[in-house]
Amino acid sequence: MLFNSLQYLVFLPVVFLLYWVLPQRLRVPLLLVASYVFYCSWRPIYGLLIFGLTLVTFLLVPYIEKAAKAESGKHVFTAKGWLGITVAVNLICLAIFKYAYFTVGTVKQGLSLAGIDWKEPHLHIILPLGISFFVFEFIHYAVEVYRGKPVVKNFSALALFAGFFPTQIAGPIKRYQDFVPQLTEKLKFKWEYVDEGMQMILMGLAKKVLLADNLALVVQAGFAHPENFSSVDLWLITYAFAFQIFFDFAGYTDVARGSALLFGYKVPINFNLPYMAANVADFWNRWHISLSTWLRDYLFIPLGGSRCSRILNYRNLFITMALGGLWHGAAMHFLAWGAFQGGVLILHKEYLRLLDAIGVNKFLAASKESGTIAHKLYHWFSIVATFHIVCIGWVLFRADDMKTAGTIIYKLVMAPVELLHFSASQLAILQIRDPIIFPALLLLLPGLMISQPIITWLNDKKFYQSPPWAVQVSLMVALMCLLTIFSPDSSPRFIYFQF
Question: Which of 187, 178, 98 shows the shortest CA–CA distance to 144?
Fold first, then answer.
């Protein structure tokens, strides 16, 4: 059941009405049943998977708390041992479903290089939707209990924490200490829930259907046959994917947060204008925030974080981002994307060290205080440079394999040479008239880029906290009209559903 499907447009209002009609004690059970109906509408058998992992985690985690409180020698395992078992069960389950094919393929390639012809086993494994997200939520819960947080004593509460249908498939990754207490709050219906929730849902659908799905047509053509496009074309196509993945995932998050708000629940934000980041570290503070903070808290810091030597710090950073890339998908291009992110984060730290050494940071700080233009120019230059670094990374992320990624990146790097003898008439995307999105891309992309600083300025002015009622109504009506007129013939599932 997709958020952008007719099924969901029927499912959500029915659950919403039942939720607010039923007494408080029946609301959590209702949402739990609805969440399993939502998940099982795809493949019913995988409802047993999320239920089984929930049950195992529910039974194991209390032993972490008991072992931590008990005197030494009274338990077979220490708290760390029980934590290890809980994490291992979840990771093994994730590994079987998500990385079995990748592991078998990698082993086969390695043996082939050694001259061994190995006939791999024939596997029949389908990746369950959302497994990466609810496994990370279970691991977070176990680690937090190990660190002293209380266990969840109600099975329904833990099951709904992992299975809550708005965030079940692609997050945001919730924190149990923020979400579970909301389940026991005695909420009364407020029109604000409907007002804010429906606006979020409509905005999310507009981002997904109007922008992401139309941009996807250009992106698919470019990444499927990069040899048919020039370097300039491929830069435009890469920009298109940068905005496609942003609007696709941000649109999903808006629908998820809006759906949760209809029931009075709040889930964390996941994006904060990431393409206005002035460096790659700032980008990861703004992009997929629930994942980047999870990686920081449960991978980077346990590895040693930054409280160690510079070399070990860089090692921890690189491992964290490489594994974060592999989390996105069991393929070499995802691992390469994660490694690329780790590499540029390390280079950014070295770049800051260089600026400190030659006194540039002091100069920029003085320029900011005095109000001279140098700081602003450097800031905007940094935003543009960061955006292009991120775009290079998106090629690795989107390409079907490393060969395709290499072809596109090579053409992107050679763009300055091509520009010396290039004219606009050579743009391949201008020659494709159907659909209209191809030639319109030259108008759409500048509009999307210009909108970023405008939205930032409106945020700074706190416009979105209390926009005039007439503005809200006009915007919602306009979005509904645009969704009706400009929706593509078919809307693919959200990109992050595959992770």
Answer: 178
* Listed residue (307, 288, 305, 283) closest to 296, CA to CA: 305
The pTM score is: 0.89
Taking the CA of residue 425 as centre, how many other CA atoms within 13 Å lie in the half-sphere pointing to its CB?
Answer: 1
Mean pLDDT score of the chain, rounded to an integer? 88
Neighbours of 462 (CB within 10 A): 9
| CA dist., res. 238 & res. 252, Å (int) | 21
Question: pLDDT tens, 179-213?
Answer: 999 998 888 999 889 988 988 998 898 899 888 98
Residues forming the active site: 328
- Dihedrals phi, psi of 128, to nearest 5 degrees: -70, 140
